From TrEMBL, chain A:
Keywords: 4Fe-4S, Iron, Iron-sulfur, Metal-binding, Oxidoreductase. InterPro entries: Ald_Fedxn_OxRdtase_dom2 (IPR013984), Ald_Fedxn_OxRdtase_dom3 (IPR013985), Ald_Fedxn_OxRdtase_N (IPR013983), Ald_Fedxn_OxRdtase_N_sf (IPR036503), OxRdtase_Ald_Fedxn_C (IPR001203), Tungsten_al_ferr_oxy-like_C (IPR036021), W-dependent_AOR (IPR051919). GO terms for molecular function: 4 iron, 4 sulfur cluster binding; electron transfer activity; metal ion binding; oxidoreductase activity, acting on the aldehyde or oxo group of donors, iron-sulfur protein as acceptor. Its cofactor is [4Fe-4S] cluster; tungstopterin. It holds the Pfam family AFOR_C. Residues 1-203 form the Aldehyde ferredoxin oxidoreductase N-terminal domain. It comes from the Archaea. It comes from Methanothrix harundinacea (strain 6Ac). The keyword Iron-sulfur applies. This is Aldehyde ferredoxin oxidoreductase. Belongs to the AOR/FOR family.
Length: 577, 173
């Protein structure tokens, strides 16, 4: 297996490949390696949108070799939070990097005018992208497909106008339907005048013992497709959680003013699947096909003429642009999702920002003068569409503030108690209880996927957990996910990749580890990420928790601030801080 | 790596979708068994996971390499478009074999061809002769063609692929 790092310098227009066996040996791959490269490449205190701030991508030793090990990690300094930026995307990028022969890619510097990068095996070209600057993220795909090679085995990742205009929560669209959504990688692309990267390759991956490889492969494949370990993703997909959380009183509604939504059924996974879903597709080398694509058919004349839009939807999007904005029609949510896709914005952050703005207008913190006449109201889809456009254009000071994220906007206009972000990252769709709040606060990238606090809360519904037990569960997930994210596997398949299966899979590709070694690695990776966070000014002691969390009933009842404080104390103690 | 004409053991699990036959396990005994051919039975059910391609290269080439897979799932207009599953249709009068200047390709009983690697020069005449480009050369010039072993069928999660028994395939769609 080729374990190489490809370095690309946009300022100099150069690239070079380095063998970094040491790095992969010690840190396995994926997030372990990406964190090290970020620590190496990013000067302390660097402006996240300056040429000196790097972008790092990495895959791991099992990518393209095992089912559902489909992700690529991106590491960068976040322009939204000012500290660790980390995001994961599926699609075909992991496969394309594997067969291009690069396990990690570092992009340094910034171009003078718009460019895109074409990587085909060892050949790296930096090409002019002036003619596609300003083009929506969705359309960039069509254009580059025609001018680049590698049909069927390549990956095209690109930004939209949101990234170009440096909206702090702009994402990068990967192969049309997947994203590096969170924490503003799109703005980092934009700051480098980097519109897109196309990757393809024809390298082989040899395994030391093909029979052993096939044996473990067959077992894992069977588990992925036949057992109930991934059942949820086979059918309705992640949107099944709309109804589930709504019934539990854990579905954030109208900016967390409620935890259940009277319109939930109308935007539920079931209703979308029955009436809008027309196709499911898959990331490369995952037999599940959890990417749910809805068809939005809108009439534009009386003569039965229609606009057809194909929109991928997931739970988080339906929360952020649905229940959290009080939007109670599937068409409305799909339209808002599509607007984010076109502009290349993170849907969660966009929804949370709009929800805050709606409440701020309602409470008179801002007026129609600031919103430029857009009367933001719950369930008002046309106003939200207009606001998204205004944010990307940064039409005035207010919209420019919204483009900086909800914490920035609330610092300027007030309303911090309902600016729903933790660690400056707009929160995902779970008002499940204290483990979710603490998990998001302490997590390395303040994402629900760091340690799945929401799932610990849901366990607590069945059997009550002490603060200690909840904290221990958070720490276990924090650390074990550092290993899994180094492979780099899809978290939907985490139930399949038990420690035992991970060890066997690694063994079959010639990497012999013990369970103890992996546990230790998980802890060290976590520590390294915190090293970066602290270096860039993050201090857990200053964590800001919006009061709204304590004012709205959650799935496990009202959340008591003292419980949160106690859990934070236990967490710091357990971590030895 | 196994020879080009005899499938290695696949040890493959049964397909999840319930459709299609199992992979050809063990050594087929000639004459006692009807010949089978791979059929793309339900291309519209494809989700583009490429598990079939990985199965083909893993089982027949002993490595992970989409390039060395005899079955290819192509996109038409990216992931927004439909997938096309390209694989040998098991012609009874295979034009690829006729085009081969060295006799490396011979007609397979039940349709399609068998490849004799020692005779193949990697000239690409076979690929030119096949309109659907179901036979190809990898980047080392090695010819890649389907031997209808069925390894991919077992790994298709959505019943796109099936094995069908043929006595004598007479061509046509």
């Amino acid at each position: 297996m080729l374990r190489r790092v490809l370095y690309i310098d946009l300022g100099r227009g150069e690239s070079a490949v380095e063998e970094r066996e040491d790095l992969f040996e010690e840190w396995l791959g994926g997030t372990g390696v990406a964190t090290q490269l970020l620590l190496e490449e990013c000067p302390p205190g660097a402006d996240p949108l300056s040429p000196e701030a790097p972008i790092v991508f990495s895959i791991g030793p099992l990518n393209a070799l095992f089912p559902a090990i489909t992700k690529t990690v991106a590491a960068f300094k976040s322009p939204l939070s000012g500290e660790l930026g980390e995001s994961y995307a599926g699609g075909r990028l992991g496969m394309a990097l594997r067969f291009a022969g690069h396990e990690a890619v570092v992009v340094r510097g910034a171009a003078e005018r718009p460019v895109y990068i074409s990587i085909e095996n060892d050949e790296v070209k930096i090409k002019d992208a002036t003619s596609i600057w300003g083009v929506p993220a969705t359309v960039v795909g069509y254009i580059l497909r025609d001018v680049e090679t590698g049909v069927g085995r390549r990956s095209i990742i690109r930004i939209g106008p949101g990234g170009e205009r440096l909206v702090r929560y702009a994402g990068v669209v990967v192969d049309t339907y997947r994203h590096f959504g969170r924490l503003g990688l799109g703005a980092v692309f934009g700051s480098k005048k980097l519109k897109a990267i196309v990757v393809s390759g024809t390298e082989d991956v040899m395994v030391p013992d093909p029979r052993r490889y096939r044996r473990i492969y067959n077992r894992l494949f069977k588990t992925v497709v036949q057992t109930d370990a991934m059942e949820k993703y086979h059918d309705i997909g992640t949107p099944i959680n709309i109804n589930v959380l709504n019934q539990l009183k854990g579905l954030p509604t109208r900016n967390f003013q409620d935890s259940s939504f009277e319109g939930a059924e109308k935007i539920s996974g079931e209703v979308l699947a029955d009436n809008y879903l027309f196709r499911r597709v898959s990331c490369a080398h995952c037999p599940i096909g959890c990417i749910h694509i809805g068809m939005l058919k809108t009439s534009f004349s009386r003569e039965h003429e229609f606009e057809i839009r194909k929109i991928s939807y997931d739970f988080e999007l339906l929360y952020a642009l649905g229940s959290n904005l009080g939007v109670s029609s599937a068409e409305g949510v799909l339209e808002l999702i599509e607007a984010c896709e076109r502009q290349g914005l993170d849907a969660i952050s966009t929804g949370v920002v709009l929800a805050w703005a709606t409440e701020a207008l309602d409470r008179g913190l801002v007026t129609l003068q600031e919103t430029l006449g857009v009367s933001l109201r719950w369930n008002d889809v046309p106003s939200y569409l207009k606001a998204i456009e205004n944010i990307v254009r940064m039409e005035n000071e207010f919209y420019a503030a919204l483009a900086q994220g909800v914490v920035f906007a609330s610092e300027r206009y007030g309303g911090g108690e309902f600016a729903m972000a933790l660690g400056k990252n707009e929160v995902p769709g779970y008002h499940t209880g204290p483990a979710s709040v603490v998990g998001l606060t302490v997590g390395v990238r303040h994402s629900h996927l760091d340690n799945a606090g929401y799932s610990i809360d849901q366990r607590a519904l069945k059997k009550s957990l002490t603060p200690e037990e909840m904290v221990d569960a958070i720490i276990r997930e924090d650390d074990s996910r550092g290993v899994y994210n180094s492979l780099v596997g899809c978290l939907f398949a985490r139930g399949v990749y038990t420690p035992e299966n991970i060890l066997e899979a690694l063994g079959s590709v010639g990497i012999e580890k013990t369970e103890g070694e992996l546990e230790e690695l998980g802890r060290r990776i976590f520590d390294e990420k915190y090293r970066f966070k602290r270096r860039e000014g993050f201090d857990l002691a200053e964590a800001r928790i919006p009061r709204r969390f304590y004012e709205t009933v959650s799935a496990v009842g009202m959340i008591d601030p003292e419980t949160i404080e106690e859990m934070m104390r236990i967490y710091r103690k357990r971590r030895g801080w | 790596m196994g020879s080009s004409t005899e499938p290695e053991e696949t040890g493959a699990p049964a397909p999840a979708g319930g459709a299609g036959g199992e992979a050809e396990g063990g050594k087929p005994t000639l004459g006692k068994r009807k010949k089978r051919r791979l059929k793309v039975a339900h291309p519209e059910r494809c989700i583009g996971c490429l598990s079939c391609m990985f199965a083909c290269s893993r089982i027949n080439a002993g490595r992970a390499s989409p390039d060395r897979s005899a079955i290819k799932v192509k996109t038409q207009g990216g992931l927004e478009g439909d997938f096309a599953v390209v694989v040998c249709r098991a012609c009874t009068d295979p034009p690829c074999a006729r085009a081969c200047p060295t006799g490396a390709l011979v007609r397979r009983e039940g349709g399609g061809v068998l490849l004799n690697r020692e005779l193949c020069q990697g000239c690409g005449a076979c690929a030119e002769a096949c309109l659907i480009r179901a036979i190809s050369q990898d980047d080392e010039g090695q010819t890649v063609c389907c031997k209808h072993c069925g390894a991919c069928v077992a790994f298709c999660p959505h019943g796109v692929l099936e094995m069908e028994e043929v006595e004598e395939w007479t061509g046509g769609l």
